[in-house]
Amino acid sequence: MRVRRCAVVYLEPREQVEFDLEGLLSGGNGVRRTAEWAAHAPHLAQPVVLDEGQRDLLGTLSPEAWADATAFASGQGSVLESLLDAGLAVMEAPDGGSRAVHAQRDAQLRAGHWWAPAAMLHGAARWQGRDALAAPEAAGLAPADGLRRELGVPPPAVARRGGHGPQLPLPRSEGTEFDALLLRRATCRNFDQERALPRELLARMLERVFAAHGSWQADDDTVFLKKGSPSGGSLHPTGAYLLVQRVEGVPPGLYHYHPVDHALQPLPAPGEALDALAMRLLAGQHWFADAPVLVVMATRFARCFWKYRQHPKAYRAVIMDAGHLSQTLYLAATDLGLGAFVTCAVNEIDIEQAFGLDPLEEGVVAVSGFGWRAGQMRNAEFDPVGRVW
Ligand SMILES: Cc1cc2nc3c(=O)[nH]c(=O)nc-3n(C[C@H](O)[C@H](O)[C@H](O)COP(=O)(O)O)c2cc1C
Question: Which of helix, strand or coil describes residue 195?
């Protein structure tokens, strides 16, 4: 049997803090602190807690060269077995079971050309079953006026640089329709819960934000698309998955949008009501969950990393791509008289499961949504220039 280390693993010396009743009753402070090593590996679902023997052996394994398992000292045999079971070491030819799954996931990660810190970051930042409202409420940070009280004075809103010579004042413009559009853009947290979106407006929005407006056939099997937003390397790796709740002529459900065919592909129905799923995916953010259309921006990493292999900037480019799509979506919606939002406080793992996405291949970067704004404000929106409300 030949073995090697998994492709990517980061060790975190971390501290577990637990309530300790016995310690409290015997005169202590009631807090038990335990130091441990956590191994973060993006091809595994959870971090793995290591003992010293596992940590030390892991440090001796090559991630590239296969080693004969019999070459390890006799005392290390069981430690190696435990690393294989955990998926931190992989076998060259496993014959089924969880070791084969670990080896296959590790091979998939290697083939994906990830820059290792980005793989670690993307994997570790994913949520499952979180409630985004609970932590800020518990910390006294909601509503927003609690921020200053609890967190102290923020850094100034604007940086003023001392420099070389006096400030050069710039002319203010009259403003065009585009300037007016920018002034009307505000994150919508009050969707009209009754009013459905016409199918034409859904189509228009998708056409503006996610559709290909043109293409260039570089080779028989190599196509580059042109879209309304810029994309690193013109690779456009980020696509749209939809949760449709209220659109005339489009049955409620889950869909994938095809940017060349300009068509919706229905996906298997989730095993729960769409409104409950929307709340779960948006980590309890009820002010967004009732939008007629939610758009999951999911990135096919391999498309970007095909060109930018193990590139330290590639993940940043992917995140920036999603930001551009989000702003295009905001402006497209505002222009059509609709409200829009974006959030990354989402339960990525729940979204992956709902839409059938493999996170090593297609990762959730953000969720947007759009629809008619309600006539009355139930949840705060940021509109200091008064162009929306
Ligand atoms: C990357 C990103 C993440 C955001 N996440 C959230 C969120 O989780 N919840 C929310 O209510 N708003 C979210 N927003 C919206 C911001 O709160 C909003 O842009 C900000 O308050 C300024 O308001 P405006 O968009 O109306 O100008 C997010 C915006 C961005 C760009």
Answer: coil
Residue 281 burial by CB count (10 A; 0-12/13-18/19+): exposed, middle or buried? buried
Half-sphere exposure of residue 231: CA atoms within 13 angstroms, side-chain side? 26
The residue ranking higher by pLDDT, 72 or 204, is 204
What's the rounded Cα separation, in Å, for the pair 19 and 23? 9
DSSP label at residue 353: H
| Of 114, 45, 8, residue with least CA distance to 352 | 45
180-371 sits in which CATH class? alpha beta
Q: How confident is the model at residue 135 (pLDDT cuts 50, 70, 90)?
A: confident
Listing from the earlier edge strand, what are the strands of the sheet with 2-5? Answer: 67-68, 2-5, 89-91
- The rounded Å distance from CA 362 to ligand 1 centre is 24
282 lines ligand 1 (CB under 6 A): no
340 Cβ below 6 A of ligand 1: no
Enumerate residues 6+ apart whose C-beta is below 8 A from 90.
3, 4, 5, 6, 84, 99, 102, 103, 106
Helix ranges restricted to H, 249-313: 274-281, 286-289, 301-307
Rounding to the nearest 10 degrees, give the CA dihedral for residues 150, 383, 373, 295: -60
pLDDT at 141 over 90: no
Token representation of residue 147: 């921020």
Cβ(353) – ligand 1 distance below 6 Å: no
Nearest CA to ligand 1 atom 31: 342
Q: What is the mean pLDDT of residues 55-72?
A: 94
Task: Compute how many other C-beta atoms are within 10 angstroms of the C-beta atom of residue 350.
Answer: 20
User: pLDDT tens digits for 187-225?
Assistant: 999 999 999 999 999 999 999 999 999 999 999 999 999
- Give domain limits for the chain: 2-111, 180-371
**CB of 344 sitting under 6 A from ligand 1:** yes
In tens, the pLDDT along 216-265 reads 999 999 999 999 999 999 999 999 999 999 999 999 999 999 999 999 99
In whole angstroms, give the CA distance from residue 294 to residue 377: 20
